[in-house]
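Q: What does the assembly look like in three dimensions?
Context provided by user:
Components: two
Sequences:
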Amino acid sequence: MNLSQGGAWRAAADGDRLLLAAVAGGAVLLLVVFVILPLWGILSYSLITPGGLGLGNYARYFGDPRFVSIIGNTFEVSLSVTAATIVLAYGFAYALERTRMPLRPLLRVVALLPIFAPSLVQALGLQFLLGRNGLVNRTFGTELDIYGFWGIFVADLLYAFPHAFLILSTALAVGDQRLYESAEALGASAWRSFRTVTLPATRYGIASATFVVFTIVITDFGNPVVIGGNYSVLAVEIYNQVSGQANFSMGAVIGVLLLFPAALAVVAERWIARHQHAAVGAQSVPLRARPNRRRDLLWLCYCLLVGAAILAVVAVVVYASFVRLWPYNLSLSLRHYAFDVQNGIAPLWTSIQVAFVTAGIAVVVVTLAAYANHQLSEAVKRPLYFLSILPAAVPGMVLGLGYILAFNDPAHPVYAIYDTMLIIAVCNVYHYHAQGFLLATTNMKQISRTFEEASATLGATRLGTLLRVTLPMIWPSVLAIGAFFFMRAMVTLSAVIFLITPSTQLAAVSVLYLDDRGALNQAAAFAVCIMATVIGFLLATQAVLRLAGVRQVSLIR
Amino acid sequence: MFLELRGVTKRFAGLTAVDGLDLDIEAGEFICFLGPSGCGKTTLLRLIAGLESLDEGTIRLRGRDLGQLPARRRNFGVVFQSYSLFPSMTVGRNVGYGLVCRKWPRPRIEARVAEMLALVGLGDQAGKYPHELSGGMQQRVALARALAPEPEVLLLDEPLSALDAKVRESLRGEIRDLQKRLGITTVMVTHDQDEAMEMADRILVMNRGRIEQVGAAQDLYWRPETRFVGEFIGRLNLLERGRWQALLPALGEASHTLFAIRPEHVRLVGDDESVAGPVGEGQVRKVAFLGNMTRLLVEAEAGLVEIEVHGPLEGAGVGERLRFVLPGEHVSPIAADRR
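A: Here is the predicted structure of the complete assembly.
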């Protein structure tokens, strides 16, 4: 071997390193621009006062009793909804995973329903059921008033339920039959073995679900804005300050205030996820619930009750979309699907386009970020990992406001896409970047490292390995990530509400506007269209996966 | 020298996996790295393959420093324990993968793939997917894939550990035959001493990142230099000079404090048999019947000694008293530790 050949080897090795550096660097740069800059925008804007930089805005905020009470409200509703959701969802998940009651597959689908709709659909449904002119008040002549704390409580409980259910049912699905048999052989009662075996084994799941639900509720905008009445929470107050009064500095202050608890919850959740060790080893005997008529029947009653509540709220929205004029004329009609108000049906098409663009960008961005994270050495990947999961701690309203503050400046390079569909898609990508990134990272981890090593020893370049070995193995999961982003882009309301323009009106926002104007039936029809689109897309994706012979990939997150 | 390792060192978070190791590997030889799990044998193989980077030392192939050369440029064939055939490719495409990476012309690739598959006896399986094959067949495909690009060295990382006992036995012979036929320099990592002894020209016994001893199977068995080697390969009675003085033949320098004898070399002596040297006496504590031989644990005055006798044994139940000798030609001094 001569020297010049050695030189060529070096160059090729550098080519491999260059590719990795470019991917990692690109991912970091994009994250800095689309996450850090907006956050910086919010933080700095909150400090700008007429008298120069200072904490004046914060002083003004905390000097106003109304603002202070909003913080109290926010925590009151977030904590109570979190507690209620975890208890109810744990019971539901337990019944589905640990008993032999009938209807389990159907109940699972029902529990997941709220995921397919924008968050304000629950509030909309509650209005139809329990509002001033709701089904209940008109049927029974009662004077129930759902607007306020209880409205938000029930709506957010239903909205957060599937997220808690997914985490808890995963935790409850695995278990070691031997432990239960040992407990039984030692004479433990069912209740004791639940306390000593089941509960400890699922405590990480419970903690994780708790923080996830808390984050969802404290950052939710759609439900409180529709059904909160005079009971104001932080997420709604940002919207009022910015969209209502164009008071950007107060919006920024509230953004910073909202950032803290959400960030804390996310940090706690990540910490738990990291310290969670596998409770089930290769030798564990998988759990198989034994039938027990009385127990199964009781659980079935409970699940039917919860399922009926979830279903009722969604079903009433669907029903209302088909009646002439809720609640005065309940004869069926398709007139609300004519969409002859506002922009007509256009926002739905815009939403679908945005969702496709979001999914397209996200699949590339998230997969490459996860790939770089997977390939880089432990020390180097820290910043990339941190930036990648940071968006989980950023509430949508905060991110959206950050985009206005950071990019609404003709001198800024990103201004080129400001007021376009693209910035909405980009905002969606980075709003849900953490979830997508973690999904992709999990997928990468599931592929044994030896495939890449085998490929390298056979002479493949890094890019060759990625294209010929890695991607062919993970494409179903990549597709699932695309579906996740599509779904989120269709239903999200919070981040994008600050970024829409008359020409880039979105479906979820239309539901809000129609509801605001009292056009409840049209709002319901629009919401049904969104749900139908999301479910249709998921079914189509599922069909593609089935046709390709892939079964293990779950599309619902 | 064909492959030369000098001062090779690799550390992981404070732990020294491979510690200043020197080794020369000759062209065409089959060498096994043998040792318990965590001894650094796999790390050493991965360093040679270029899958780990050296912290210190050099690795040279025909005098050329491999130092910073990435795995894909070394032209070493590697077979992993987990087969790691690409699941999305057919057997044929798996075997041809390295050739595609080297941009061989298509007809040549096809010919080479057919040749390699025939070589491992799977000529008719090219169109199948890995998951349609048994573990043994998959590992043969992995072997064909590693050999297809005509590698300089073949590296085998516990290639047989994931297989059933029967398949393992037959593949041992197949791999060894193939290696001899192709004359390819081969390094295999294993924790199975039988495998190493049956297949390798030379065995390198590793412990805690260092070499305990390198040599042919016979050398290691008959002349273990350290207690570790003696105990790792086969079974061994360790006799401290202080306690066993009376029964040990007069040998060795005074500096030797530890002696060793294999259980099958301890000779039982009949009650009426007269022997020239010193005779030990003890009580049988345990009897294990192992088919072709019987293993006894005998408690003598100086301590416990293990004795293996071929065939069945009469009159050696637990509690019986026995007489034995330690033949001088089989007792050897041994180092307690390498350091």
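Follow-up: The two ends of chain B are 27 Å apart (CA to CA).
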